[in-house]
Amino acid sequence: MAIINIEKIGIKIDDPERCKKFLKENGITYERWDTGKIENNEIDQEKILDSFREEIEKLKKMGGYTTADVINMNPSTPGLEEMLAKFRKEHTHSEDEVRFTLEGRGIFFIHPERGEVFSIEVERGDLISVPAGTRHWFDLCGERRIVAIRLFQNKAGWIPNYTNSGEDRNFIPVCFGPSFIRHNEH
Ligand SMILES: [Fe+2]
User: Fold this and answer.
1) Residue 178's pLDDT band (cuts 50, 70, 90)
2) How many A from CA of 158 to the centre of ligand 1?
């Protein structure tokens, strides 16, 4: 279940329906997908994509996505810190950022046109779609691990356009669930 944190005004939302409503008001799609049909710790890309074929096809039709793959990052991934350094600077994309988390946890920060920056911590079963053009950044939680399905309209669209606003430096990526693991500061 996702956890939303609007740090500047001290509001945290972890109720599924309230999360969904808040995110919808901010243009972000949020869904829970049933993960009961796949083993914990499954990392085989074909098995994962096959298990969620129906959900993926539905999203593809709705959002015009053409391809799906599985990203698997963990502390033994070569170049992990270099990759994360790119993700955690505020940026936009020319297409939606669609992620369905299966293992591990990550934290998206959203910098809306109006209102305060908020974070969304995602875990197994959370689907999130951040619309094209939305200012955001991403980091992993303390265990430095994520397995997630990604959908693309065009793989080239994932290229980040950095805003260089420096806003990302005002927030420490603190994850709350399930054991309040505090992220290393950067
Ligand atoms: Fe991004």
Assistant:
1) low
2) 7
